[in-house]
Amino acid sequence: MVRYGFTLMSELHGPTELVTAALEAENAGFDFLVISDHYHPWLGEHEHSPFAWSVLGAVASQTSTIGLATMVTCPFLRYHPAVVAQAAATIGVMSGGRFTLGLGAGERLNEHVVGNGWPAVDIRHAMLAESVEIIRALWEGGYVTHRGQHLSVEEARIFDLPAEPPGMFVAVSGEEAVHLAASCGAGMVATEPDADLVRAYVREGGDPDLVWGQQAVCWDADADLARAVAHERFRFGTQGWRVQAELPTPMSFDAATAVVTPDQVGEMVVSGADPDAIAKSVRRWTDAGFTQVAMVQVGDDQTAFMQAWSDDIRPQLP
C-alpha cells in the first residue's frame, strides 16, 4: 500500500509556521510528515532554516497519528552519530514510535559550517556506513564503544529509548548507497522516480514497502504566478546531487542557478491548481515502485493545497 506525506520545507517557513502546517497536514489525512534538516537554506530567496529537531519535538507533542521523518539528516561532521541516535530516540519516545530517521551523505552547504572540512564522496559514504552502525548499536541499549576508521564513540548509552527502534531510510543515487540501504535493513529515498534504483534496491534484499520519494508542486489558482514562484523558490533542484552536494552557501546556489529557466523548473515542479496534473506526477513515483511519497508545496497557500489534496488529488491515487 502506498502512503503519502507532506513536507515541512523549513527553508520557506519559520518554526511556528511549520508546527501549524504539521497539524493541518494531519487533519488533511496525510500519512506522514518529513522535514529537511539543514543549517542553511538553498537560495537567497529562502528566508528560514530553523533547527529541525526542535520543530520535530513540538510536532511530536502536538500531533497524535501522523508519522514523522527527517529527509534527510547527515549524521557526521555537523552532528556526531551518537548525538543523532539520541535525538532520534527522543523523538521516537515523544511521538509514541511514529518517527523514522532518514539519513544521507550530506551537502557542503550545511556540513562545512563547523570548520571540519568537506571530505571526498567516497569518504562521506564510508562515514555514513559507519554512522549507521553506531546508531543501530546505540538503539539496542547498553553502553557502546566504537573505534572506527572515521568515527569513535566512547562508552555512550542512550537512556530514553522508544519501545521499538525508529525506522530508518538512506538517501541513494547509485549502487554503493543502494547496497548500504539494503544491507543494513533500511529503506531508501531517491530524488527522482527512478525505477532502476528501486529494482536494484529490491535485488539487494531491500524492502519494497520502504521506498521513499518526494514530489514538488506549486499550488496557486494563478498558473502564471505559480510558475514564477516555483522558479524563484525551487530552481536549486535542477542542479542534481553532484552539484547540490558541493556548493557551500546560498549565494553559490544563486550563482549556479542564474541561468535556470522556468521551463527547466517546470520539469520538476507541477505549477497551478490542476489536481489531475498533480495526480499524474505522483503516479510517476508509484509506477516506478515508490511506496512512500511526500508532497512539497512550494507556494504560499498550504491550506488550499491540503484541501485540494483531500478532495481532488488523493482520490485519484493508488
Write the layout of secondary structure elements.
Layout (H helix, E strand, L loop, with lengths): L2 E6 L6 H13 L4 E4 L16 H11 L4 E4 L10 H14 L4 E5 L4 H4 L9 H19 L4 E4 L4 E5 L10 E5 L3 H9 L3 E3 L5 H9 L7 E9 L3 H12 L6 H4 L5 H7 L5 H5 L2 E4 L2 H13 L4 E6 L4 H12 L5
Parallel strand pairs: 1-2, 1-11, 2-3, 3-4, 4-7, 7-8, 8-9, 9-10, 9-11
Antiparallel strand pairs: 5-6
Explain what the structure shows.
There is one protein chain. The protein is an alpha/beta fold and 318 residues long. The protein has one domain (3-132, 167-316): TIM Barrel (Alpha-Beta Barrel). The protein is 42% helix and 17% strand. It has 13 helices and 11 strands. The strands form 2 sheets. Strands 1-2-3-4-7-8-9-11 form an 8-stranded parallel beta barrel, surrounded by 7 helices. The protein has a two-stranded antiparallel ribbon with strand order 5-6. Strand 1, helix 1 and strand 2 form a beta-alpha-beta unit. Helix 3 crosses helix 5 (121-139), helix 6 (175-183) crosses helix 7 (195-203) and helix 12 packs across helix 13 (302-313). The chain starts with a strand and ends in a 5-residue tail after the last helix. The mean pLDDT is 97.
Number of helical segments?
Answer: 13
User: What's the CATH class label?
Assistant: Alpha Beta
Low-confidence segments, given as residue ranges, are none
How many strands, which pairing sense, and closed or not: the largest β-sheet?
8 strands, parallel, barrel
Helix content: 40-55%
Spatial sequence of strands, sheet with the most strands? 1-2-3-4-7-8-9-11
User: From the coordinates shown, what is the CATH architecture?
Assistant: Alpha-Beta Barrel
Order of helices and strands: EHEHEHEHHEEEHEHEHHHHEHEH
First-last Cα distance: 8 Å
Counting structural domains, the number is 1
Strand fraction: 15-25%
Q: Write out the CATH superfamily name.
A: Luciferase-like domain
What is the name of the CATH topology? TIM Barrel
CA radius of gyration is 19 Å
